[in-house]
Amino acid sequence: MGRADASMGAMIVKDERGLMEVDGYPLTDLAREWGTPLYVYSKRQIEADATRLKKALGAHFDRFHISYALKANSNPHIVKILKDLGLGADCSSPAEALLAARMGFPTEKSIYTGNFESPQDLKVPLKNRMTINLDDHARAQNPFEDSPLPPVLSFRINPGIGRGGFEGIITGGADAKFGIPYEKCGEAYAWAKSLGIDRFGIHMMTGSNILNPFYFAEITGKLLSIIETHLCPLGIELEFINIGGGLGLPYSPEEKELDVEEVFRLVADVFHPKVERLSIGHPALAIEPGRYLVGRAGLLLSTVTHVKESYRTYMGLDSGMNTLLRPSLYGAYHPIHLDGKSQTNAVSPYWVCGQVCENSDLHPKARDLETPTPGDLAVMEYAGAYGFAMSSHYNGRPRPAEVLITEDGPELIREREEDGDIFLRVPHFSLNAEGPK
Ligand code: LLP
Description:
The protein has helices at about 25-35, 45-60, 75-85, 95-105, 120-125, 185-195, 215-230, 260-275, 290-295, 325-330, and strands at about 5, 10-15, 20, 25, 40, 65-70, 90, 110-115, 130-135, 155-160, 180, 200-205, 240, 285, 300-310, 315, 335-340, 350-355, 365-370, 375-380, 400-405, 410-415. It is an alpha/beta fold and about 425 residues long. The longest helix is centred in the middle third of the chain and has 19 residues, at about 215-230. The radius of gyration is 23 Å and the shape is globular. The protein binds ligand LLP. Ligand LLP binds next to helix 9.
């Protein structure tokens, strides 16, 4: 049995030789069997994170819904773990709605939130009787013209404020393209009533990767004031008040773990007295986290390809912005460790990069690592959310494989793509055919 290493997230332990393992499985064995780059997930960790969150909500709310935001990681084997824990699904595209239906999420626990969605997009969630969360009401065409009305309708409200780990993931406030400006939300609900809809919720999602526990209570208070001013005069009753996702993870060593029990205690302090005072029925508190449920439970394994002494010292990996986009897109930090080496013996800083022909294919900070050698296994933490989900074929690189460690051991849950897969849907062409095209 290995020991935990304080410099790493709780997922990784080291065996007596200093080699890393997860749930008793050496990472070198996984890399040897399935190659790199490889995403590795722990079912045990997903269950632990989801259970902590359910307990935190359950301690302060009699009625609550947690819908897993499928966009964070939609591998059906990962999604099934969360479905089996009784969570609902938060979908943002027809494919995600089909996935939720196929996985057997109860429709009353599934919500569809689009953004500039077309009437065509709404057909799948409507057919599957999901709650529809509209991003706007003022449209050229009634989105329910040739479909049945949704059983429950909510609107995504932009409460005028937003926050996020990076600018690109702030989804509320004056610069956000999402939702209905709160001043117009009365209009939206009046329009929905005029269509004959009589079961409602309300929703906001103002930003992602938030580590400030007070923020969630602040936005809840803001949404409740909006409800009081704009919905109460219409006599709207609400089945849920959805405050979105956004629960953050401490990616970098300077960041502090978000205490979710504290978050929902603070939210409850704002929620209960106000909801009791307003005549809006008995709404449940709803949330739709993605990152919090799967982010910590995923690692990205890569192989060191080369170390280059240039104007800086670079450590090149066989994974890059094509495999894990977050560092390039947002300047996001992911802890990086070399298996079998110790950060306490660090000799110098290395700039960690991938193989893509862009200079942004680089982690944002130099890392202190013990002299890397080609062939070393590099392990990135907190890669379970928005990792594989945002990977691409850029520069002609096939997408990586995914492995899930369950009580039965490690299992391949997505095969590594081959070079030919990049051209799969190109008519009259196959990379594998003989001779020039
Ligand atoms: N609900 C809606 C409507 C959303 O748009 C999102 C995420 C979520 C829930 C889940 O948010 P979470 O709990 O994961 O914060 N690619 C970025 C994150 C973008 C989040 C977009 N929306 C990243 O890698 O950090």
